[in-house]
Automatic annotation (TrEMBL):
Residues 141-332 form the Orn/DAP/Arg decarboxylase 2 C-terminal domain. InterPro entries: Ala_racemase/Decarboxylase_C, De-COase2_C, Nsp_de-COase, PLP-binding_barrel. Keywords: Decarboxylase, Lyase, Pyridoxal phosphate, Spermidine biosynthesis. It comes from the Bacteria. NCBIfam families: nspC. Its cofactor is pyridoxal 5'-phosphate. One of its GO terms (biological process) is lysine biosynthetic process via diaminopimelate. It comes from Peptococcus niger. Substrate binds at residues 240, 276. Pfam families: Orn_DAP_Arg_deC. GO terms for molecular function: diaminopimelate decarboxylase activity. This is Carboxynorspermidine decarboxylase.
């Protein structure tokens, strides 16, 4: 018998395989028309049960450290790339057993680890910093003053690039093609002279390619021109674009309190289940809800932890909320399950996957007390 979402206790994540397939269709078109290879950035989405589906289209995975590298290698088994701000010598030999491409964040790291990497036959590159911000993302801006990410042009002076096969820049966050074009121009102005020496160029992540208003044709044309001009293998490593709008988080109202406004306390937490709400900040969509005062009844949606700031946001509804009502938060596949935590002993949401069109939902993982206890 097919599992019905209404029967599943809240809170739970549900990964929409129909939406994921549509995202993969768009990304597959970019690959087919440009020759570029697209990698899943696992920092945004690491639900490896979906890796076989994703791996049918994408070229592989990219990792930020040992555990992600191992996961991508074992569960998708295609190309595995890694970038770390600083590799640890105690992990490096194991990393080499999982990855094909490595990007280094400094010449000191390259000089320290290149003998091992080259002896193992790995393709090595350097992450560069074009020093050109296209966003006001604060903690999400790798080109912000004082950034630790990427090598500046001035640090290339006098350096020997023998053994380096690629360059890597990653400067975007949830941005359109215009930001990529602007960044690429800055990159070429500073580092274009080195591209004839390279075999590949990684344009990083943060590309919202599957967003409805993204200029996919502009991206395709740009990649085609870039390849014709320099002859390098191009890589993109989006995370959000792979699973954009492909997941929900369903929660229930537990209580309604009033302090200058109506506040609905839910069984889900911004701090524990959707940390980007607090970090970015970010206001997730809620099915059927509007902006404050847009509909008849406005509520502040808040979590049940002891953190005073465990607040998701203010929303309005056609009808009053009451305990037991279910709310569905959208766009919850990315940067949620990989960031969940058990602060305050908060239970982790169940994870489901399935196809809404086929109504064949299944449980990937349930969590309980031991999942909280074992981390401590």
């Amino acid at each position: 018998m097919a599992l019905q979402l209404a029967e599943v206790p809240t809170p739970f994540f549900a990964i929409d395989e129909d939406a994921l397939a549509e995202n993969l269709r768009i990304l597959g078109r970019v690959q087919a028309e440009t020759g570029a290879k697209i990698l899943l950035a696992q920092k945004a989405f690491s639900n490896f049960a979906l890796y076989p589906m994703i791996g049918e289209v994408l070229a592989g995975t990219t990792a930020s450290g040992l555990f992600e590298a191992r996961l991508g290698h074992e569960e998708m088994g295609k190309e595995t790339h890694i970038f770390s701000p600083a590799y640890r010598s105690s992990e490096f030999d194991e990393i080499l057993g999982y990855v094909d491409h490595l990007s280094f964040n400094s010449f000191a790291q390259w000089e320290a680890f290149s003998p091992q990497a080259l002896a193992a036959g790995k393709s090595c590159g350097l992450r560069v910093n074009p020093n050109h911000s296209t966003q006001d993302g604060g903690i999400y801006d790798p080109c912000a003053p004082g950034s630790r990410l990427g090598i500046l042009k001035k640090d290339f002076l006098g350096k020997n690039l023998r053994g380096i096969e690629g360059l890597h820049f990653h400067t975007l966050c949830e941005q359109g093609f215009d930001a990529l074009q602007e960044t690429l121009n800055a990159f070429l102005d500073q580092f274009g002279e080195y591209l004839p020496l390279m075999r590949w160029l990684n344009l990083g992540g943060g590309h919202h390619i599957t967003r409805a208003d993204y200029d996919v044709d502009g991206l395709i044309n740009c990649l085609q021109v870039l390849h014709r001009t320099y002859g390098v293998q191009l890589y993109l490593e989006p995370g959000e674009a792979v699973v954009l709008n492909a997941g929900t988080l369903t929660a229930s109202v537990v209580d309604i309190v009033h302090n200058e406004m109506d506040i609905a306390i839910l069984d889900t937490s911004a701090a524990c289940h959707m940390p980007d709400v607090i970090e970015m900040p970010y206001r997730p969509p809620v099915l059927g809800a509007g902006n404050p005062q847009e509909k008849a009844h406005t509520y502040r949606l808040a979590g049940p932890t002891c953190l005073a700031g465990d607040v998701i946001g203010d929303y309005s509804f056609d009808d009053p909320l009451k305990p037991g009502d279910r709310l569905v938060f959208g766009d919850m596949a990315l940067y949620t399950m990989v960031k969940t935590n058990t602060f305050n002993g908060m239970p982790l949401p169940t994870i489901l996957t399935g196809s809404p069109s086929r109504k064949d939902w299944r449980v990937l993982r349930k969590f309980g007390y031991e999942d909280f206890k074992m981390r401590l």
